[in-house]
Write a structure and sequence with these properties.
Blueprint (H helix, E strand, L loop, with lengths): L3 H13 L5 H8 L7 E5 L5 H8 L3 E6 L2 H11 L4 E2 L11 E6 L11 H11 E12 L4 E3 L2 E3 L4 H11 L3 E9 L9 E8 L6
Parallel strand pairs: 1-2, 1-4, 2-3, 4-5
Antiparallel strand pairs: 5-9, 6-7, 8-9
Helix pairs in contact: 1-4
Length: 195
């Protein structure tokens, strides 16, 4: 992975810590039981982990960037872990997994394995929120952005994962200087009948 977040952690946190994600966090939390267990996977600034914690959920959070983890711990006062998606080994532990703008930094050929790890970590009927940029994949400042168009994403989920699509929402980037850029926001369910 690029060292982009190691060298730009402070500016990234400053840029993203106050973004309004309420449309998506509210939708996500509707599927989580009161006091339920949430994993913020690739938590960045820790903004959403902090919100979930303040709302009374049991939250665990991690990020692959040491510097983001260090600064997010300071800002949120939460015990954010330094690890990657590939190091996940939980089984049926979470009611929900929140992966906001994090999975997109994995190569497309890594995604089936990681989605399998996420699926395994969810309880039956658990929900996964994942967001990707809409369009063609690209690299910027050494950082990979795996992107999808909606039909391509539906096909990927159907053919490469055990998840069921609950809802897909296309939204415009919340940052003023990124107007005209769009995100695919996916709410995916773990089926009680799937193996």
């Amino acid at each position: 992975m690029s060292d982009y977040y190691e060298t730009n952690a402070a500016s990234y946190i400053e840029e993203t810590k106050n973004l309004d994600m309420s449309r998506f966090t509210n939708r996500f939390l509707r599927s989580i039981p009161e006091g339920g267990a949430i994993l913020d996977a690739g938590c960045g600034s820790g903004r959403d982990a902090l919100l979930f914690h303040e709302k009374g959920y049991r939250v665990r959070a991690f990020d692959a960037s040491k510097e983001l983890v260090r600064l997010a711990r300071q800002w949120t006062n939460l015990p954010i872990e330094h690890r990657s998606f590939h190091e996940m080994n939980e089984y049926a532990e979470y009611d929900g997994i929140w992966a906001s703008a994090s999975l997109l930094h994995l190569a497309c050929d890594e995604l089936p394995t990681v989605f399998s790890l996420l699926y395994r970590a969810l309880k039956e009927q658990g929900i996964l929120y994942a967001s990707f940029k809409v369009g063609e994949s690209f690299t910027k400042e050494g950082l990979l952005y795996t992107s999808f168009i909606p039909d391509e994403f539906r096909s990927f989920i159907r053919n490469e994962t055990s998840f069921i699509i609950d809802e897909l929402i296309i939204s415009e980037d919340a940052r003023e200087y990124r107007k005209g850029e769009f995100w695919l926001n996916a709410f995916l369910k773990k089926s009680a009948t799937a193996s």
